[in-house]
Amino acid sequence: MLSERKKYVKTLKRVGIGLLIIVVLLAIGLSVWEPLSIKESAPPPDGSYEARIVRDEFGVPHIFGKTDADVAYGVAYAHSEDDFSTLQEVTAMTRGRMATLNGAESAPIDYIAALLDVRGTVSRKYDDLPADVRAVLAGYASGLNAYAADHPEEVKLTKLFPVNGQDIAAGFVLRSPFFFGLNNPVEALVQNKPLPREGGPRLSDEPVKTSIHPLSPDKLIEDDSATPVGPNPNENGSNAYAIAPDRSPEGKTRLISNSHQPLRGNVAWYELVVHSEEGWNFAGANFPGSPFPFLGHNEYLGWTNTVNRPDLVDVYKLTLNDKKDAYRFDGEWKPLEKKRVWLNIKYGPFVIPYPQIAYRSVHGPVIMNDSGAYALRYAGIDELDMLTQYYRINKAKNFDEWQAAMAGQGVPATNFIYADAEGNIGLYYNAMFPDRPEGYDWRGVLPGDSSKALWQKTLPFTRVPALVNPASGYVMNANNTPYIAAGPGDELKPDNFSPLLGVEDDQTNRSRRSIALLEKANDDGKITDAELWAIKYDTGYEKAGYAKNWLDRIAALDLKGSAKLLKAQQLLGQWDWNLDGKGPADALALMVLRPANKSHYNRGEMPDPREILQDTVDHLTKYFGKIDPPMMDVLRMRQGNVDLPVDGGNDTIRASTLWDVEDDGRLSVRHGDSYIMFIEWAKDGKVHSRSIQPFGAATTRPDSPHYTDQMQLFVDKKLKPVWFDPADLEKHKTSDKMVGTAVR
């Protein structure tokens, strides 16, 4: 009996040791299989690069090179010095390895990259790009590779480098459609929810269904899915103003760029100035992963962008066969393309492979849910021309060249507000409008079984709504309809544009406020610099639109049963309609207005006003002991050890759009006024500009002197000079170095 027991114990030990070995081997396998399974990218073609990086007193890099490709190399290297962490995230995103880097929360981004066939687009279209564009992309990729080679201790993923020009192009393909709302139908279809309301006028009498849900009453921040352009892409916005010389006392042309983007992450602005002996001279800002600025100015002209929200996405319902491997199209069955996708998701020290299927039809990517199969078709699908357009407008020397580059229609959406040394100003509601045939409700789900409903091309640039040199002497946009842009009597007429374009017809508080202030300043025919500055930093609300309707609903509530809510209601009734932080009701108004603007901006249903008021009162009481704390104690700019008060709100021109609720109950701004630039061309044509960023040039380098060195200026509404002229820069440089293949 004893011997049998010993045998049994020995057997258990063997089994236990065997299982332990299996577990250990499995753990080792899961920790090493992902990098072993990844095919390393080929580096760019061999090239020789040399760039000079000069930094001014705020750490802004000024990159000089003999060729544009040299400059692109320097752009990548300088940006890596300041924010290699974010650049690696963007690189991982273009490779479908975000979840390997960051975990399960990034898995949807990797799936989206596969669903949209991003790498397929690059493979098909990259070689068609002009040679000079490909040279710039290769130079930029080489700069990233050089920094990674020089700093291997900072590289987070095996085989993430080298990268090549195709990898850089992939980032553009992946991110572009999410600036005009592709995330909305994708999220709704994946979750099997009703589709959100699309932009543009109604084309049918059918009731509009929406999946945009109001803010939860027990949360100040609604959780949003990860997207290639960060969380809360629906909140991205901007303000922009261009003022003609006739409206300046000094006869100068002025342009204000005021983007509202996340303050951190892969679509946060990075400031730079570039100078190439091939004629590329530009000051402005880009996103991580871009070799060239997206906004700013050269010697002759400049532009900025604001998000526009036309209907550029169409959804088709497919008719599948019983096996669900084919769909009906023009009376025949076409095979449904099917591709297995492995999402490599980091869990602790392990990377777990998770299988998914990416479907595709002749329309585009397909999402299957409980109610069927739906295909998506969107502006810019399977295109790379946005790379060429941005590069060409960077180097344009006059209005005609700039418009010719714009006519290439590579950028699928976003308003362009333009100004130049010759005094021209303009608003271009840039969009790659699908050439849609009449007879279908393009605001709803379309039949997927007929080629008649499947558009194949986009409309020419001549069909884009544009307002150039209006008599008012100004143009503006604040994420509103382009039909409100220059004041009464100088606007575009909506009847001149087909409703099939899907141009939005709504307004923001910022647009209402901008027009009111510009018209007032323009009464005497001139808009002074001081007046223009006051407009840009205005924190007021117009007593109109959704804001008035929302506060009227709160004022109409019967709150006799709650002393706290009644007091809050009365306090809001005395609010001065300005979030300057000076009034006793400002903190309360700031917080109750945000969910209303969110619903309005996203074309959703308004939340319950009593629940929002209750939620806000509870929060202020819990953390501040009263409902009327100074707003500047509540709303903060925080980075590292710097903690500063800031004003503005969710839909004020001085924008503090989104915030995180910190442990102390304060609201730390993470989205809103980001990169700001004031540009002017004097009567003699010479350009001068000033700018500011919320934190500094090195947003992820706590040890850098430029981690927070612009914060005080930012909250004080001050700007710093941009040393665009190299001769001026020499007087203000703090570092000067050469980088390149010959000097590493």
Q: pLDDT below 50 for ≥5 consecutive residues: which ranges?
A: 18-30, 208-223
**Given the helix and strand composition, which structural class is it?**
alpha+beta
Largest sheet: 10 strands, mixed
Strands, count = 27
C-alpha Rg, in Å?
Answer: 27 Å
Helix content: 25-40%
Terminal Cα span = 75 Å
Strand portion: 15-25%
Helix count, DSSP H or I runs of 4 or more residues: 19
Q: Which shape, going by the Cα principal axes? A: globular
Major beta sheet, strand line-up:
19-17-16-8-7-6-5-2-1-27
Could you tell me the mean pLDDT? 92
Detailed description of the structure:
- A hairpin with a 4-residue loop joins strand 13 and strand 14.
- It contains 19 helices and 27 strands.
- With 744 residues, it is an alpha+beta fold.
- The protein has a ten-stranded mixed sheet with strand order 19-17-16-8-7-6-5-2-1-27, covered by helices on one side.
- Helix 9 (386-395) packs antiparallel against helix 10 (399-406) and helix 11 runs antiparallel to helix 12.
- The longest helix has 36 residues, at 2-37.
- Helix content is 31%, strand content 22%.
